[in-house]
Amino acid sequence: MIIESFSAQDTYEIGYRMGSQAVKGQVYCINGDLGVGKTVFTQGFAKGMGVDEPVNSPTFTIVQVYEGRNMPLYHFDVYRIGDIAEMEEIGYEEYFYGDGVCLIEWAKLIDEILPEDRVTVNIRKNPDKGYDYREIEIL
Questions:
Q1: Residue numbers of the domain that contains 52
Q2: Contact, 106 vs 90, CB < 8 A?
Q3: Contacts of 105 (CB under 8 A, 6+ apart)
Q4: Along the 139 residues of the chain, how does pLDDT read in single tens digits?
Q5: Which pairing describes strands 119-125 and 134-138: parallel, antiparallel, or unpaired?
Q6: N or C, which end of the chain has less CB nearby within 10 Å?
Q7: Domains of the chain: total
Q8: Strand 101-105 to strand 2-5: parallel, antiparallel, or no bridges (unpaired)?
Q9: What is the b/e burial string over 79-89, where b = at least 16 CB atoms within 10 angstroms of the residue's CB?
Q10: Phi and psi dihedrals of 74, rounded to 5?
């Protein structure tokens, strides 16, 4: 499925709708270039799950845990991961197969350890359709 976003607010709302429907054990893999809106999408997703605190990319901590309405959100940003051993050091399996929802920015960088059962969200710009236009593909 492809959803068009014409503003950061649209991208946030798409994330919000998905987050409000998230269920325990799901893994969401978010991919896209720098500045495409992965964090805006994630902020909406978190709000949809009932997370009330500010959500930012956990670039230097790799994972940030937020308490949602019914379950935790495990927010990963794996942009700076050097190799899979770093993911093993933080105990990624506890999160991927835990009691919450995982949302992983830059997920394609750790594709070999991702569960087969996952939702992939690819966010792309298309300058021909406008500066703020985003194509959000959900697989």
A1: 2-138
A2: no
A3: 30, 38, 39, 42, 57, 75, 76, 77, 78, 79
A4: 999 999 999 999 999 999 999 999 999 999 999 999 999 999 999 999 999 999 987 667 789 999 999 999 999 999 988 889 999 999 999 999 999 999 999 999 999 999 999 999 999 999 999 999 999 999 9
A5: antiparallel
A6: N
A7: 1
A8: unpaired
A9: eebeeeeebee
A10: -100, 105
